[in-house]
Amino acid sequence: METNNVKIQVAAGGPLLVNGTVTIVDRDGKETTKEGMTALCRCGLSANKPYCDGAHKAGNFEK
User: Which of 12, 26, 43, 44 is the most exposed place for a label (fewest CB within 10 A)?
Assistant: First the structure.
């Protein structure tokens, strides 16, 4: 059996950093496969959700 190891790290004051091969399904059901490092927004300010665009920096996101 093949395993797919995915590591998710919470960046202090920033995004969720997902390392590995993941499939992201948008609200319309479209699937996108990402490999390597993917940064997911957790501040809610990104204009490119679910991906981080760095907006947390200007928004002073601290969690």
Answer: 12
**In 3D, which of 36, 38, 45 has the Cα closest to residue 63?**
45
Residues in the chain: 63
Task: Give me Rg for the CA atoms of the chain.
Answer: 13
Alpha-carbon separation of residue 29 from 2, 9, 11, 34, 43 (angstroms)? 26, 25, 28, 16, 23
Pick 7-58's CATH classification: 3.40.5, 3.30.750, 1.10.10, 3.30.70.
3.40.5
pLDDT tens for each residue of 1-43: 566 799 999 999 999 999 999 999 988 999 999 999 999 999 9
